[in-house]
Amino acid sequence: MKRASLWTGVVLVGIVLVAGLVSLVWTPFDPNRVFPGAALQGPQGAHILGFDQLGRDLFSRVLAGSQICLIVGVISVSIAALIGVPWGIAAGMLKGWPSELLMRVADILYAFPALLLAILFAAARGSSTWSAMTAIGIATIPAFARVARAATLSVMSSDYILAARASGTPYLMSAVRHVLPNIAPVLGVQASVSFGMAILAEAALSYLGLGSPPLVVTWGRMLREAQTYMFNDPALALWPGLAIAGAVLGFNLLGDGLRDLLDPRLREAV
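Given the sequence above, the corresponding structure tokens read:
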């Protein structure tokens, strides 16, 4: 089926977006409300997924967890793109040692994964959502820089760029008018893939206690709290696990579908 991955990704991402937007204004119950005597009970009445180990409505918590997932993805990808894209464009347009220096710095930054940066930020400023988002964003900068540089090198070999340079067009104007619009589709694909990785990284940080504070509902923290009851009530880990897997899969499939759609070498014949 043509573009099946694209449409599958759109559907999964759409579900996450709808869940996040709906949970901003409505959830069946307060995600942190405790129902006495209902701990670990199964679905009943309006509680369609049952209760967690403290007697909180599981569906409301899964729904509310989509908020942090989307916020972390948007902020961390924005941080990475706002720094990494100009970085990569500059490395692609410059020649000689300046370009090499920029990319070697990016390689050094690759040595600091999001988990290590989050530990450093947590030690310096304490665990928080902002620390997790900043760590994920900084760790993703080299990926955007490399993709932007590779795409810029391809654009810089085009005839219209050579004509613009011959006419005396400044580098900054060439970057804004010619390079950035032509590499935007590639950056969009990278943003979609990075969004999925940011969701996975935030879930891992929350699972380790390096993300959002305890009262903030996150899918990773739900998994951490459910591990003790894995054999008594597997549903506690099943639903947040499926939510994380569906969100990550959706953004990855969306990125693959956009790549196939926008890359003329991979575009399917209609």
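The chain has nine helices and no strands. Try to locate this feature in the token string yourself.
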